[in-house]
């Protein structure tokens, strides 16, 4: 299986690194400082279990240098960058190739191949002009959810928090168990990451969404980790109100989440205190993945007439922060005002 990792940041770089280390036929696509670092000195993975003592050297190209065909394209881009790269990615696919989309948040394809009165509905927050739906062949798409805390500390260096829950979950959009899912599972598990095949990828999306839709935008506006949000009484209470809204929206499209806000906060308090991907983007001056994480939940709530007032407040605040980052070209990172 020829594998292309398109977007080699924290998660894409981790997956491309372990596949390279395992001897898979894998190519990484990167740009800017990340490309320079990977091509010049390789990739450093830091982690108690999945780390490597030496830099990993492998094939890496800029987006305009890579040549088709690939049997599997793992897309490591964040959801807000998919549309700009969609046409090129499709052009790199083999005839029966697959595109594995494991971005955080609810995907543009949520209502495709779904037995629901809402089948065919478009989430305007994640595919406002229909570019993704028109460009990416729906039969090529495999849904995914990845559970792996990773932090791109600097170009070419990724810090990993190894946890028992680390895994990649994959599923077909029509919930069938297929041979291609098993082939993907075999290829990635050989590199050391557990892979679970599910017959309900949307339910898995919602389980991770329950945390990300609430805690990631809160982390962006408070400069706090998820655990710090859970430890502070006021933000903990507010997070629980938002989580209740996410649970209600999920239920409105037939997904019963097998947890409660109290249980989720208990889990958050046990997590490694690593900055979320959204907080990393705030500090790095990069656009925020708010549409798929939070605004998509609000979109579905509007479709199903479920109110989401608390989510909308935080989405507005984080949205303005994102506008400052994008329009003003600035990053918001902590600056020490006293000696540690």
Residues in helix, %: 40-55%
The secondary-structure class comes to alpha/beta
How would you characterize the largest beta sheet?
8 strands, mixed
From the coordinates shown, what is the CATH architecture of the largest domain? 3-Layer(aba) Sandwich
Shape: globular
By DSSP, the count of extended strands is 11
Number of domains: 2
Q: How big a fraction of the residues is strand? A: 15-25%
Q: What is the number of helical segments per DSSP (H or I, 4+ residues)?
A: 12
| Separation, N- and C-terminal Cα atoms | 50 Å
SSE layout and pairing:
Layout: E1 3-6, H1 10-21, E2 26-29, H2 32-41, E3 44-46, E4 59-61, E5 70-75, H3 82-91, E6 93-101, H4 131-135, E7 141-147, E8 150-154, E9 157-160, E10 167-171, H5 179-189, E11 195-197, H6 201-222, H7 226-231, H8 233-252, H9 261-268, H10 277-284, H11 290-304, H12 309-328
Parallel strand pairs: 1-2, 1-5, 2-4, 3-9, 5-6, 6-7, 10-11
Antiparallel strand pairs: 7-10, 8-9
Helix pairs in contact: 6-8, 6-10, 6-11, 6-12, 8-11, 11-12
Give a written overview of the molecule.
The protein is built from twelve helices and eleven strands. With 340 residues, it is α/β, with parallel strands linked by helices. The chain has two domains: 3-199, Rossmann fold (3-Layer(aba) Sandwich); 205-327, N-(1-d-carboxylethyl)-l-norvaline Dehydrogenase, domain 2 (Orthogonal Bundle). It is globular, with a radius of gyration of 19 Å. The N and C termini lie far apart (50 Å). The model has no long low-confidence stretch (mean pLDDT 95).
